[in-house]
Amino acid sequence: MQIGICEGELRRSDRAIVAFQQALAIDPGSARARAAVLGALTDLRRYADAERVARDGLAQWPDAELAVGLVSVLMAMGRTADAAAAARDGLARWPDHGTLAISLASSLQYDGEATPQQIAAAHRRVGEIFDRARAGLGQQMLAGVDSWRARPAWSRDAGRPLRVGVLSPDLRSHSVAFVIEPFFEGHDRTKFQLVAFSNARDRDAVTERLAGHVHEWHSVADLTDFQLAELIAAQKVDLLLDLAGLTIGNRVPCLSLQPARVQATSCGYPDTTGLSPVDYRIVDSLTDPDTAAFNGRVSERLWRLDPCFLCYKPVADAPLPRRVNAGAASPPTFGCFNASRKISMQAATLWGRIMARVPQSRLLIKSFDLADATASAGLRTMLERAGIASERVEILPATKGVQEHLEMYARVDVALDPFPYNGTTTTCEALLMGVPTVCLAGERHASRVGVSIMRAVGASELVAESADAYVDTAVLLAQDAARLDRYRSQLRGMLLASVLCDARGFVDRLQTALMAMAQGEGLR
């Protein structure tokens, strides 16, 4: 096992698998060795092999961590309904397993048939499990955290900067970092001290850039949740801003211990955490309208950072927008560059209707998780069920770099935003490259981010309020070469001039919000 762990640390996953398999041959019932093999196979994107290891292990030596691994593998292959089913099966065996509850809640974000009420119930279950876990802990174990959390609220008259902790696994080349970097870069250092708690194991150029903007930086991936909670408390953080929610790399158990007196979550996850110790969630009035329905489905107080809860920092030196197949005679190409798990059967069905009405049109799909043959074959099967012939679909894996990724938009005439889980950074990138993105407005945050982005940019005509309108909008747009040319020449300018790219305005709004949150404004 130790040899495999060392090989894994050195990013030699093939060798790690061999070592873990040897350990498993010695002790076939070792849940630890089986989980290690599963993790290494998943890292290599050998998803079919990983699924087999997980299912074989669960059949012979049931273990909750194998159930968690199975859900992760199914999600990676885009089989979100199967992932939700596996999470439910796991919870039936281990009803108080927090990670399985998180897996179920997060997998439902991609389910076009799940109702907002069902999704809310899954998130409440997460909170209930962690509330019970905290209640069962000895007070001595939490003494260091509790004593700091009980301090008086920070005040604008405190005579010192507000100390904001930022907790995230994505302070690296990741969409979350692109959204939060303007705040890191532009915050008022006389009024704020940023303390970063990075749960990423690797550092890259983005990490180094972000680290240069904060007061302190802590790498915490190797800390237990108790150790992390104690560190945050010891750093005397006034407000802890979580950027992960229930996504991969989250530190939900730490948040449930409430190491900071005030805790908020933002941008990394499109829904409530379900955790009672998290006080605020940052959204806007378009993603989460101020109604009883939206307010009643979350455990936090929704803080609407209007006019938009996002700030997009465009890629430096992005290639100029262009169209490879410009002209009225060229068959149009629809495209989607989001993670393939976001492509629901409901979305694929509407895409089938769109392509049926646009003869000879093609569909270009690009996603980092489609390098695996099993995953790409599963997506093709789903698209064929939706009426899209395989020969009209081109599937591409991830490109080598951002510039090459952006260049691919030259092959796309109309981007189709997936639902119920919309794109965010992907949509911004499409607009940067002059590609109009057709969105369908839904009933929850994940399916309303497109509404917020398009309204911010001034392209609300690309937002459809119904399935039929989504189809009509995409069809009419694809058949209007002159309109496509106008978008190609104007969308980048519209994006850069919009509130979505107004870094100074975003930083000012967020700073004002964080100061108010630190004083507990609006908490019940």
**Unreliable residue stretches:** none
The amount of beta strand, in percent, is: 5-15%
**What best-fitting shape do the alpha-carbon axes yield?**
globular
The count of DSSP E runs of length 2 or more, i.e. the number of strands, is 13
The assigned structural class equals alpha/beta
Mean pLDDT: 91
For the biggest β-sheet, the strand order reads 3-2-1-4-5-6-7
Estimated helix fraction: 40-55%
Radius of gyration from the alpha-carbon trace, in angstroms:
23 Å
Give the termini distance in whole angstroms: 50 Å
Helix count, DSSP H or I runs of 4 or more residues:
22
Largest sheet: 7 strands, parallel
List key phrases describing it.
single chain; 524 residues; alpha/beta; 7-stranded parallel β-sheet; 6-stranded parallel β-sheet; 22 helices; 47% helix
How is this structure best described in words?
The chain is an alpha/beta fold. Helix content is 47%, strand content 11%. The protein contains 22 helices and 13 strands. The strands form two sheets. A seven-stranded parallel beta sheet has the order 3-2-1-4-5-6-7, covered by helices on one side. The chain has a six-stranded parallel beta sheet with strand order 10-9-8-11-12-13, sandwiched between helices. Helix 10 links the parallel strand 1 and strand 2. Helix 4 packs antiparallel against helix 5. The chain starts with a helix and ends in a 6-residue tail after the last helix. The relative contact order is 0.10.
